[in-house]
Amino acid sequence: MNNPFARLAAREFLSCSSRAVLGASLALTCAAPAFAQDTTAADQNTTAQADATAQGDSAGQAIVVTGIRASLDKSAEIKRTSTMIVDSVSAEDIGKLPDVSIADSLARLPGVTAQRLEGRDQRLSIRGLGPDFGTTLLNGREQVTVGDNRGVEYDQYPSEFFQNVNVYKSANASLIAAGISGTVDLRMLRPLDYHKRVVTANARGQMNGTDKLNPDGTRYGYRLTGTYIDQFAGDTLGIALGVSATSAPTQYTRYNAWGFPTDSNGDLILGGAKPYVQSNLLDRIGAVGTIEYQPSEAWHSTLDVLYSHFSETQRLRGIEFPLVWGGVPYTVNSANDGFVESATFTDVHGVQRNDYNKRTADNYSIGWNNVFEVADGLHFTVDASWSHADRTDFLLETYSGTGYNKSGPGDTVTITRNSDGTFRIEPTLDYTDTGTFKITDPQGWGYNGTQPVVQAGFLNRPSFKDDLKSLRASLNGDIYGSVFSSWEVGANYSRRKKTSAYTSYFLCPKGGGTDCTVASGTPTSAPVPSEAVLNGTTQLNYLGVPGVLTIDPLYIYNNVLNAVYDNRPVSLVRDNTVTENVWTGYAMLNLNGMAGGKKLKGSIGLQVVHTKQSSNGSISNFSDGVVTVLPASDSVSYTDFLPSATMSVELLPLTYVKMGASQTMVRPRMDQERVNRELGIDPSNVGLGGGPQYSPFSFNGGNVNLRPYKSINIDLSLEKYFAGGGYIAIAGYYKALSDYVDSNASVAYDFSDYLYLAPQAVRDTIINSGGQIGLNKRPENSGSGYLQGVEATLSLPFSEITPALDGFGFFGSASYTDSSIKLGSNPTESITLPGLSDWVLNASAYYEKSGFQARVNYRRRSSFLGEVAGLSANPTFRTVRGEGIVDAQIGYEFQEGSSLAGLSIMLQGKNLTDQPFVTYQNDDERQVIDYQRYGREYYVSVGYKF
Questions:
Q1: What digits encode the pLDDT tens for the residues 592-613?
Q2: Is the model's pLDDT at 14 over the cut of 70?
Q3: In the chain, where are the structural domains located?
Q4: 126 CB contacts (<8 Å, ≥6 apart)?
Q5: For the chain, how far is it from start to end, CA to CA, in angstroms?
Q6: Nearest-angstrom CA–CA distance, 751 and 767
Q7: How far apart are CA 794 and CA 809, in angstroms?
Q8: Please, what sign has the CA dihedral across residues 533, 283, 396, 153?
Q9: Strand-pair category, 134-138 with 182-188
Q10: Fold adopted by 4-344+364-399+441-453+469-504+566-668+706-743+779-945
Q11: Which of 271, 425, 598, 615 could form a disulfide linkage to 258, CB 3.0–4.6 angstroms apart?
Q12: pTM, rounded to two decimals
């Protein structure tokens, strides 16, 4: 740690926490009261969240508000009463979060940002740490994900199903699976809180501001939802049911640069480009059900069930232009400040792409919570849950060009740099001419590891299963006559298993040959069938290309192409399973009393976490034209101790100081824990001398022995609540990070067991030179550093200023984050944390009164390192340019006394500034790699509440 205050605070915290667990007499010196849980983290949905605001209670009056103001008041109540540092989003009404999606709403909270993918907010960063550093809970239970790793893609959850969403930025002992950055807890409604029957129905239409960019796309979508809540048996049995159906289109233009080599003058020049237009359609159906039963004070049972199915279809059409890296002649027309602004390339053989991607996923979640009063003031809680996700992808690429391996007519292409960093690309060939263009491998890129193949397309078909079972039990009891109000002890067991399976295929024209190889007589091209050509033209005129060949890739796949299994080692080595068995025990003391005449709440506790993680997979090798696949498995066990303390002191009426100190951890990416390794053998290194870097042997893969990232966290928050609603808060935090995973690490490894794969004639040479000791490239826990920042939040109803402004209000936040992380592979330079924006700003201005509401939202984040899809859909990191996005909505709800009472209508506009998503490389904003423009989106909603 470079911060002396933080080092001192961390030492004092760990010392105090250990003493406090051993003796209550020292507890107040270390106390930090926490999230006063009556039972467990799985049952924290307090009645206060649905009641009148605490501000109104404190003023001795009842304040009845609805819509936006009700949402803000509920969120403020959750924040005020929690002893942990928390920010929340609450539903304006049943089944009505205040934004289009959960991620949209959460991205407005202080210190929370969202990365747009496919035009939607999906991945969240909390306090500068990316999605892999947080955890997501559903009703307090850890959830699996349909994504490749741990980070939850929030569009898998229909937002209408949740009453509120809490983001906990500090931790206590009973918060199982707390993240380093924070913990997002999605809370479903509780039917016994309503005491009456409620039925709601909503319909929403969607239109993209951009017309469909592909003839087989659409610009119109919809969302239909319904909710039913009722109580029976004298309000002892409650049922809540919800259904949702969504069809959401997205249209966007994509520009991608291959990179920027230098020309003979030392100027940067475009190496190649890949412009596309893309049309997406997300179809999702979801259902939830909750049965709540409380026949007496002695038993309270809640069963939650959630199911979500979604499929996303993507249609992409465009052209890859190999330029400098295509080895073609060119002439520089103009250059400026070390950058080629315009050039003309000749004999360019473009690769036309007609691609089709489809992802289907099913998400299941079941949780059953039971609370028993075993004696006066003593409760036993047991909670069982199951979370499961299945996902399959169908990623189809089809290629067309003028001839196989540059054998057809070449093109003359002029590029001119635009002011936004993209390049205008002006060809001379007609790329819609089926007489000129055919199904083929235009660049001759196909190679199966030993010989050329005719790669007229490629198919990736990965599938993932993620399964998590958990059982939790706890016992808590009251303490009388002491500042300690209660105690809680508990245990949790969870088993998570993620299976990743990959298959891929070379696609080549039918008609002869074997395995798509050129030597066997595989046809090098095939004509474009007229049946495959779609009505309508796909244009890339936003970059200067008048049109591209518009064909149905599924027709080509089913009727024109053969599929040959891709058995290269890099493809075979990806299949794996990762299993984590985790036992967690915890103990916690809660505080609730007076200290120095001030109200004091909090907790102090300790978690003990024992983990056994294992992986099954393979080791693959390619030598002398033969692929060898060997099974592999490994496991490791370890134990961690995680102390925590929280405290909330009401210094003045409605003025609180909250403090938190904890040690938390989050597990590495699951693909980093895999056992898989790709064995490389480079005969050219034989006899080069000692040292692992000169060995002919090398490994590249995962590391089952990885430990979790760890963090010592210090949190402080000052919160002032206004009597008439709203608050102002300032929070600071410091995180000392250790065991940070370095994905580029390498360690020496003895490859003696693999000497038999080398030719007999060179084995002695390898041994004599020490060449059997090579490098194993795998992730290691070799990094450390710190993260620190400050957040400021203002929620202000303008009626606090003057009654004349009743109905107007503002909610906004600003946060600044600084970090320094150094890795073992490069200890002299600090890395950029994925997902970290130095500055994040959010602002919402609203008006709501007598059923009418209007709101404008603005959110701004500075540049950050984002995860995007790279070559073959593999995740890669690039710098994302800072962006500012404006959304707005206006609506009206008919009031009591009207013949239309219960009816509401709303208009919404999203991304009204038409903000592009831009990535660049080498810290040079001129070197734009991705430029995606999603356009604006418009929604009209009609709802009715019975």
A1: 998 888 999 999 999 999 999 9
A2: no
A3: 4-344+364-399+441-453+469-504+566-668+706-743+779-945, 673-704+744-778
A4: 111, 112, 133, 134, 167, 169, 179, 181, 182, 184
A5: 58
A6: 10
A7: 10
A8: positive
A9: parallel
A10: Maltoporin; Chain A (2.40.170)
A11: 271
A12: 0.88
